[in-house]
Specification:
By secondary structure, the chain is α+β, with helices and mostly antiparallel strands. The protein contains 1 helix and 9 strands, in the order αβββββββββ.
């Protein structure tokens, strides 16, 4: 009986460690942002959940990539246009068109 109790404790500890490791793993979003069907070059991106010191930017082809230790919903801002992104455990692609003050998914 003592042996099975120790096994249960070991399983619980292993599960807790895996849960903590998953929470601190980086979630990644990436994609391309367009304005008037043209890639938006070198545009600064802001996230309402991003607390980093360096704001990510699109490259010269309108592509961006951000990895963060955050899981869940955020608002992505490009200038005064915004749209919703969700950081999942797996990398997720978000391509957007700027339409007035909205980022619309392609």
């Amino acid at each position: 009986m003592a042996r099975s109790g120790a096994l249960v404790v070991e399983i619980l500890i292993a599960g807790a460690l895996l849960a903590v490791a998953r929470d601190v793993s980086a979630a990644t979003i990436y994609g391309t942002i367009y304005r008037n069907d043209q890639p938006l070059q070198n545009a600064e991106l802001r996230f309402d959940c991003w607390k980093g010191q360096v704001a990510p930017k699109t490259d010269d082809r309108g592509n961006y990539r951000l990895s963060a230790n955050h899981m869940g919903r955020c608002n992505l801002w490009v200038g005064d246009a915004s749209g919703v992104v969700i950081f999942y455990q797996d990398p997720t692609r978000y391509d957007f068109d700027i339409d007035g003050k909205q980022l619309k998914r392609r």
